[in-house]
Fold:
Amino acid sequence: MQIEEKGSGNVINVAGPRSRAVTITVTGNNNRISVGNFSTGGLSITVDGDGCEIHLGNLRFAKKLSVLAKAGAKVSIGDKTSVMNASIFAIGSQVSIGQDCMLSFPVNIRTHDGHGIYDIHTGNMVNQAGPVEIGDHVWIGMQSIVCRGTRIGNGSIIGARSYVQNMTVPACSIAAGSPARILKHDVTWDRSMAGNLFDETAMISGDILSLLTDQHDKVS
Structure:
């Protein structure tokens, strides 16, 4: 594990993994980083600026994960989430990913486009940074891009190669396409291929299943 810090008042806590595949670089002051215990083939955390917060829980694994935070951004990933290959770019806003999510490869999550777009009459920026909120038990399909102003409800699925921006995806729904649109409601997913979600062979936890069914009952 390699940690490079330039600044003051920074707090870095790493429960694991402690391997050469982990690099943490902090340039700035009063930033907070906490990393839970999980296996990884490559974890890169870069903070550039002051007052950023990054919290990675006890993930299932992160084969390849890159996190960049700037301008006071906040990034959090909940316990039991799995990451095949994901890049998170958080600038001046927040990325929150819940528990038991599944991020395929390569997934790109951004609060900002990286470059400004401006109205030529007023000079105002038209692509301001915005938050990305991903609930619990959400599956983000391969080669998907999730951008600013997006909220994805618990239990939902984002199809492969989708582009999601300034959109709310209701709980237990499927959204896909570029730009993404809602394709189906009242569905969720499981890491297994069980014949029925309620079979003993299904991998979904009882807590998550209760959360999804209770939420659906309240909405309906």
